[in-house]
Specification:
Distance between the termini: 69 Å
Number of domains: 2
Largest sheet: 9 strands, antiparallel
Radius of gyration: 26 Å
Helix content: 10-25%
Structural class: alpha+beta
Length: 496
């Protein structure tokens, strides 16, 4: 009898522990708490060298203390379902001290392009939904995350295609270097799966001491507050050469069905910068240089030329195409728009367009079918126009520059669009808008006559709906009309 009572009491005590363990296990079944067990996945031979697939199915190269606390060895899909209140997505990265290592007193982290992709159901293909040459926000977050505070990194130098972050042991010890791209609209009815990546490399004295990982957050209607994290990637060890940190929430059995190998091509492609505005890289560089001259400074922290040369020698194999002679001041509006917990943010009802660094939805955007250069047979006097040139056949070629959208402001049924006035001789502007990311040639347009106009109001819109907007200029010459290319496409959501 006593034995029976003892066994019953023991079972009452042990059963809840077993149940809790069983409930906890599925959440962390991707790895054991020792971080040494093998994941039960057979990698297909044709995917053995696919960095996207392997990012979620091979062990971490290195891990941080925070990853160990979370039992994160392999990549892990955290949430399959997206909250109904989620309206934006944000690609982010994290760099932490590798466990059981000692950071050098001073070291450098280089952060390159950040891209985010979605599988579009309507287009039956992967599209680029965010593409940045470097992060729009770079901060130090204290750990653990439950009590974190954020401090903006001060010693950052921005170049054309990467950001150079100078850090100290005190900065990162027990903390996390946290950075992100741009919050972009979440089209729930069209997007099925997501993937993201960023480039990172470090100075030689920090090799073996840093671990990089990444993920995608869902955000609320402001684009600021995090609701859920879709996945966390495996850990990548820092190196003096460029590494691409990948992650995705594609189930393994859906990977090839969605032709996800195409993600590697989208990563390499620069089309996300040029589909909706095919300006050359040199033009972009010139704009950056001009911006530098007007700002009167090169970076957040001015470095001597000798320091730059010394750093460049240390990291020669890491930056074969990155010339440190063209640094530029980061766009403050771009950085401000995604500062988490640290700065004010404009809501979706009014979005300031910070020029070149604003996120384009260009992979899903149709480039203009009408050329920015048109041929018009005119009298030779027309060739004196600075926007025109005449060939030997007395044909005059006009080239109009694409305008830039400066500000979008939304009400429940209307959007106020403001753009930068053209300095060319033009007849007016056209504003085209659509609820679809891929704006078709047949989408609605508003024509604004007159060179001096720099704004218009689009009315009779649907409340609580994302609208994608672009602008171009035009010039009438006799019976013919010449158009510029479309501006970079921007978006905003009307109020409820």
């Amino acid at each position: 009898m006593v034995k029976r009572l003892y066994l019953r009491s023991l079972s009452i005590f042990i059963t809840p522990i077993i149940l809790v363990s069983l409930m906890w296990h599925p959440l962390h079944s991707y790895a054991s708490n020792t971080l040494n067990s093998s994941k039960d996945v057979e990698i297909p031979e044709e995917l053995a060298n696919d960095p996207v697939y392997c990012s979620m199915n091979t062990p971490s190269e290195s891990v941080s203390d925070e990853m160990i606390r979370a039992w994160r060895d392999y990549g892990h899909i955290i949430h399959d379902d997206i909250p109904s209140s989620a309206e934006y997505l944000l690609n982010f990265g994290a760099i932490e001290e590798t466990t059981k290592t000692t950071l050098p007193d001073q070291f450098t982290v280089y952060l390159g392009k950040m891209k985010m992709f979605a599988y579009s159901i309507s287009q039956k293909r992967w599209i680029t939904i965010d593409s940045q040459p470097y992060p729009t926000g770079i901060y130090i977050y204290t750990l653990p995350w439950t009590t974190t505070t954020a401090t903006k990194c001060k010693d950052v130098t921005y170049y054309d295609n990467y950001a150079k972050v100078e850090l100290t042991k005190k900065d990162l010890q027990g903390n996390c270097l946290h950075f992100w791209g741009r919050s972009v609209p979440l089209l729930k009815d069209d997007y099925l799966y997501y993937a993201a990546c960023y480039d990172v490399w470090i100075s030689g004295n920090a090799v073996g001491t840093l671990t990089a990982s990444g993920g995608i957050d869902t955000k609320d209607s402001t684009g600021r507050n995090t609701l859920t994290q879709l996945y966390s990637s495996r850990g990548y060890s820092g190196a003096t050469y460029k590494k691409t940190v990948w992650g995705t929430n594609i189930p393994n059995d859906e990977y090839q069905k969605c032709n996800s190998q195409m993600l590697n091509l989208l990563y390499s492609s620069d089309s996300a910068y040029s589909d909706s505005n095919t300006s050359s890289k040199s033009e972009s560089t010139n704009k950056s240089s001009n911006a530098n001259k007007s700002n009167g400074k090169k970076s957040n922290s001015q470095k001597s030329e000798n320091d730059k040369k010394s750093s460049q020698k240390t990291d020669t194999e890491t930056t074969p195409s990155n010339k440190e002679g063209t640094s530029k001041t980061p766009d403050k509006a771009a950085d401000k728009s995604n500062d988490e917990k640290t700065t004010d943010k404009k809501t979706s009802s009014e979005i300031e367009i910070p020029g070149e660094s604003f996120t384009e939805q260009s992979a899903a955007t149709e480039s203009s079918a009408e050329s920015s250069t048109d041929v018009v047979t005119t009298p030779s006097v027309e060739s004196n126009n600075r926007d025109a040139s005449t060939d030997e056949n007395n044909k005059t070629y006009y080239k109009l520059r694409a305008p830039k959208i400066k500000l979008l402001s939304a009400k429940n049924k209307s959007i106020d669009v403001k753009w930068q006035k053209s300095s060319q001789s033009i007849s007016g502007y056209e504003v085209q808008y659509s609820t679809k990311q891929k704006i078709s040639k047949k989408a609605k347009k508003v024509r604004i006559k007159g060179k001096k106009r720099s704004s218009t109001v689009i009315s009779t819109l649907i409340p609580n709906t994302f609208y994608f907007i672009r602008v171009r200029s035009y010039k009438k010459i006799g019976s013919k009309t010449v158009y510029s290319k479309w501006s970079k496409q921007q978006y905003i959501k009307t109020k409820k």
